[in-house]
Amino acid sequence: MAFESILKNISRFASLTLQEEEAFCALLAIKKVKRKEFILREGDICTAEYFVNKGCLRTYFVDKKGFEHNLYFAIEDWWISDLYSRTQMAPTYSNIVALEDSELVEIKHQALEEFMVKVPALERFFRLSYQLSLVNQHLKNLDMLHLSAEERYVNFIEKYPGLAGRIPQKHIATYLGLTPEFFNTVHAKVTRARK
Description:
195 residues, alpha+beta, 4-stranded antiparallel beta sheet, 8 helices, globular, kinase, transferase, RmlC-like_jellyroll
């Protein structure tokens, strides 16, 4: 079943009846994206939430000097969207692109909002998911302020096991607030220390 994974993900924080699950699944669509294909570009308005069935995506923005800064990665069983753009119906500052051929489950913003009014359990799921996401973002911000580059990289490896092998090192570098050149030194140090 194409929606089995998303229902299992939701069941972490919310219990839906069989009837609610069926009604929710009726709102979903499978979206297949190729590597390097965008699901959102800077200036677009984000109109959907996406659940990753298969693949890997990244969210990034480009600064005024033309440098990319990675904000978020999403792999199987993770959600990805632009919460600011989607909730404010405002143009996004970010881009979301597939790093691998990917299969996503898409739910349109308006359909999701209307469904959450009818099914408070789903609203609870998204509230708890967003809270967890905010906590993780807060911890990342604190790490950027008080941890060394090596410590940040070790945290990344430990928090997201296996992810480092799927993402080009230049993307991990900017996610950690490092230049790709400096990241090479950090990566070599951490790799030697962990052997």
